[in-house]
Amino acid sequence: MARDPYRLIGRIQQVAHSLRKKSDHLLIDSAGVTTAQAGILSVIAGDPGCSQRDIARRLRLGESAVVAAIGRLRGAGLVERRVSDQDPRAVALFLTARGRETIGRAQETYGVLNGLVLDALGVGGRARFAELLDALDSAVASFPDRPDEAGPPGPD
């Protein structure tokens, strides 16, 4: 039986939620961080000295969520804040030695997760799936931020 194409968004959300829950459990067990925290650590690892705003933009998260997560990561001794070399008013973020160890373990877990996803897609489906994700991402980026204030069309 064919799936209802109008339930596509709901199905995408279900799969994304399941994947996030599974990855959270695996990452917490292996590295002691959630998927979102591992993402933040990964950005900092790739761009030492970046700002919270940079992280929010790259991960498409709200700045307040990033601020809260950075607070937890600092409390766990994984991230440190320093005055920026470029702007003494700005704060730059760096991984601690413990943070570097943690992101290493998280990246190993991501390798396992990516392998499982790639296996599920099969060799023939991998490139096509990546293309479809890129197309979906572009389409979502072009959606309006808010629906038209005029509301739904009235009866003719």
Automatic annotation (TrEMBL):
Pfam families named among the record's database cross-references: MarR_2 (PF12802)
Q: Which PROSITE patterns match?
A: HTH_MARR_2 (PS50995)
Domain HTH marR-type positions: 5-138
The family database entries (Gene3D superfamilies) matched by this protein are listed as: Winged helix-like DNA-binding domain superfamily/Winged helix DNA-binding domain
InterPro entries referenced in this protein's UniProt entry, alphabetically: HTH_MarR-typ, MarR/SlyA-like, WH-like_DNA-bd_sf, WH_DNA-bd_sf
- Provide the leader sequence positions: none
Protein name, please?
MarR family winged helix-turn-helix transcriptional regulator
